[in-house]
């Protein structure tokens, strides 16, 4: 038993395809999770504009005993300090714009909109050349994350292109 039949506002039953959890919904959830991470990142970068935060982080780094962790943290803090407030604001703005795109992808995919499938193919596919470049540029021991991102993005693009083509073929058959 499937339980009660879900209906649309006009009283028509919701198609079974719209109710099931499949690859499209999985990609939507991953996109929405990515949007949450980007929002948290934007907030964290924005907090760096507060006076005294970088000094407190520098003081805290002095308490670290692991020299590798301390060295990495100090390098990151130095890089952030050299950015300046204007560049940090630009970084926040770019991150929020990208977050808006990722949110649109996630929400659109969840509601099974064709425009969201196309947007996701374009946006995710546009990252692949950069990932390939990064794969070539990185030293051999530091490529695992790039390979993982490249594999995931290629799989998402392949799945959505396959889905779009299958939908187009199905629509052309029903019109004939």
What does this molecule look like?
The chain contains seven helices and no strands. It is mainly α and 176 residues long. The protein has two domains: 22-111; 113-176. The longest helix is centred in the middle third of the chain and has 44 residues, at 67-110. The chain is elongated and about 70 Å long.
Largest sheet: none
List the uncertain runs: none
Residues in β-strands, percent: under 5%
SSE order: HHHHHHH
What's the domain count? 2
Overall pLDDT: 86
- Morphology call: elongated
Number of β-strand runs: 0
Percent helix range: over 70%
| Termini separation | 35 Å
Global Rg: 22 Å
Helical segment tally?
7
Q: Pairing-aware structural class of the strands and helices?
A: mainly alpha
What's a quick, concise take on this entry?
Helix content is 77%, strand content 0%. With 176 residues, it is mainly α.
Key descriptive features of the protein:
mainly alpha; 2 domains; 7 helices; elongated
Layout of secondary structure:
Layout: H1 16-19, H2 23-47, H3 53-61, H4 67-110, H5 114-125, H6 128-137, H7 144-175
